[in-house]
Write a structure and sequence with these properties.
Length: 276
């Protein structure tokens, strides 16, 4: 007779077999290795995260048939992983061209558990977009999402589009944080009590000083009521943030300017408090 499983309310990791989950991270330093390029994943969208990030988040903080909302879905990495792992996924992307291309890519991914994945074209800072996300959730019979993923632009490090409302076009750090704060608030509205949220974000330099975007965004999430569960640091391999062949030049600039080159970004984990 098979021994009964033991699970938390938020993950289908079998705690009776906890030693066997070799690929599931529980430590704060994330060395994930090269990008998983299993089709249809590809590294062709400048600014997409590696699939191992949503894989880790979904494995630890969701169960089969749970619903995941990604408010900055880009080329759909989260939704492709949702299909692979049997989670429903709703993405929001402001750029219609990227939304269309990502929809094609997501639909080409195997869907062995027959889950629902949909990308909405919209501005995640807008109330109207949240209302549409709620309509999608209702269509799935879920009053709220089980998990939220936020991978916003790291302010103006990469300009994603010319569209008003795109966070990468915010005129100042304060304006960026104001927009991000609204999305954090929307995330809190759509997420169920006790649900988990992951924020993937990096810092930047401007005017010869470090702007700790990660910690500023973290504070906005705390301000809207989330509980902070983890600050994970992920190594950036081969400097995905655009150092490229000018690596030596950047080293020279770092030495001259008295700064350090970014080799990390954050995966911060939050939890919405349970109903009182
Ligand atoms: C860092 S990328 C996310 C990449 C995604 N994780 C992936 O793997 O493809 C940020 C995305 O947010 C989109 N974006 C920027 N502002 C937005 C907004 N207000 N609402 C929705 N999407 C937005 C950008 O067009 C871009 O595709």
């Amino acid at each position: 007779m098979q021994e009964q499983r033991k699970e938390t309310e938020f993950s289908d990791i079998d705690l009776k077999q906890w030693k066997q989950y070799d690929d599931v991270l529980v430590e704060t330093l994330w060395l994930l290795g090269p990008r998983d390029k299993t089709e249809p994943h590809a590294g062709d969208y400048w600014g997409n995260f590696i699939p191992q990030i949503p894989y880790q988040v979904l494995t630890r903080f969701t169960k089969r048939d749970h619903v995941v909302v990604d408010f900055f879905s880009g080329m759909g990495t989260t939704l492709i992983e949702c299909r692979r792992l049997g989670r429903h996924g709703i993405g929001v992307e402001i750029d219609p061209t990227i939304a269309r291309r990502s929809t094609e890519r997501i639909r080409s991914a195997p869907n062995p558990y027959d889950v629902y994945t949909e990308v909405l074209v919209g501005d995640s800072t807008a109330q109207e977009t949240v209302d549409r996300v709620k309509t999608q959730l209702a269509g799935l019979g879920a009053p709220q999402a089980d998990c939220v993923i936020l991978h916003p632009p790291y302010h103006d490090i990469i300009t994603f589009s010319e569209i008003n409302g795109d966070l990468s076009r915010a005129g100042s750090t304060e304006a960026f944080l104001e927009q991000f704060g609204r999305v954090a608030e929307h995330a809190s509205t759509v997420l169920k009590p006790s649900g988990f949220m992951a924020l993937v974000i990096g810092d930047k330099y401007a005017n010869a000083q470090l702007v700790p975007l990660g910690f500023y965004c973290m504070q906005r999430c705390i301000d809207v009521g989330f509980t902070l569960k983890a600050i994970n640091v992920k190594e950036i391999q081969n400097n995905e943030r655009g150092k490229g062949r000018n690596g030596n030049l950047w080293k020279y600039r770092a030495l001259v300017g008295g700064f350090y080159l970014f080799k990390h970004e954050y995966i911060m984990v939050f939890r919405k408090p349970a109903h009182k």
